[in-house]
Write a structure and sequence with these properties.
- The complex is a heterodimer of chains A (about 170) and B (about 60).
- Chain A is built from eight helices and nine strands.
- Chain A has helices at about 5-15, 25-30, 50-60, 80-85, 110, 130-140, 145, 150-160; strands spanning about 20-25, 40-45, 65, 85-90, 95-100, 100, 105, 115-120, 125-130.
- In chain A, strands 1-2-5-4-3 form a five-stranded mixed β-sheet. A two-stranded antiparallel sheet of chain A has the order 6-7.
- In chain A, helix 6 runs antiparallel to helix 8 (about 150-160).
- With about 60 residues, chain B is mainly alpha-helical.
- Chain B contains three helices and no strands.
- Chain B has helices spanning about 10-15, 20-25, 30-60.
- Chain B starts with 8 loop residues before the first helix and ends with a helix.
- Classes of the chains: A alpha+beta (about 170), B mainly alpha (about 60).
- At the A-B interface, helix 2, strand 8 and helix 8 of A face helix 1, helix 2 and helix 3 of B.
Chain lengths: ~170, ~60
């Protein structure tokens, strides 16, 4: 498995002007989560123009279907993206998950109002809002997603009314 | 393991074992700095994992 290089992945997508929204664990990190995550999850626009841009951005990274046999034929092109919805890829810059829809919000156009542009490494990157991220984690319903909810809700509360001093950590 | 459902969000997180001081410190940083530190942490985890894997392979030969 390749080492995830988050900044370079963002740069590759931005260079081709791919319309995407950062969701998942790295979005949580942007909001202040202490969670460590490997795969980069993005919700992408499924417009024909964007599928072209997405392929131009990702093809040079030698994408392969993650977890699939190495000899399984896979070709990342607009027809393939159009025929599918969600793709879990391994690339030279690490794991990249392309999500055509994000439950319970929907596709890119429905997710967009729940995102904002965040300056990251000199780029302007759309990132899913904290409240929408909490909804998505709850909707996903997997233990690994639900385990993140208390931290995300704490971050939301801290951002709404920041504590005046750091609360002391609990020690066992 | 089920997250607690009672109390304020901060109380629930603390009861769940989340170190709120880490979050507080993260919120004082810019988004870029948060991501940079997360990348450093991930790199460290992967380096340790690779070392552990190499050690296990040496042990089995």
């Amino acid at each position: 498995m390749s080492r995830t290089r988050f900044q370079d992945l963002l740069a590759a997508l931005s260079r081709e002007r791919v319309e995407f929204i950062l969701v998942g664990g790295w979005a949580a990190v942007v909001h202040g989560s202490a969670h460590i995550t490997q795969d980069v999850d993005v919700c992408y626009s499924r417009s024909p123009e964007n599928l072209e841009r997405l392929c131009r951005a990702v093809l040079p990274l030698k994408p392969a279907l993650r977890g699939a046999p190495r000899d399984l034929p896979f070709r990342l092109d607009p027809p393939t993206l159009k025929a599918g919805l969600n793709f879990t890829l391994e690339t030279e810059l690490g794991a990249l998950d392309l999500l055509g829809e994000l439950s319970p919000l929907g596709g890119y156009d429905q997710v967009l109002p729940h995102s904002s542009a965040v300056p990251l490494f000199g780029l302007s990157v759309r990132v899913l809002s904290l409240s929408a991220l909490i909804r998505a984690k709850r909707a996903a319903g997997r233990p690994k997603d639900l385990l993140m909810v208390p931290e995300l809700e704490a971050l939301e509360a801290m951002q709404q009314s920041p504590p005046v001093a750091p609360p002391p950590p609990r020690r066992a | 393991m089920t997250p607690p459902t009672t109390g304020s969000p901060l109380e629930r997180a603390r009861a769940f074992g989340i170190d709120l001081s880490l979050l507080f410190e993260n919120l004082r940083r810019s988004p870029t700095e948060r991501v940079r530190r997360a990348q450093d942490s991930l790199d460290s985890v992967l380096a340790v994992r690779a070392e552990a894997q190499a050690w296990r392979e040496r042990q089995s030969t």
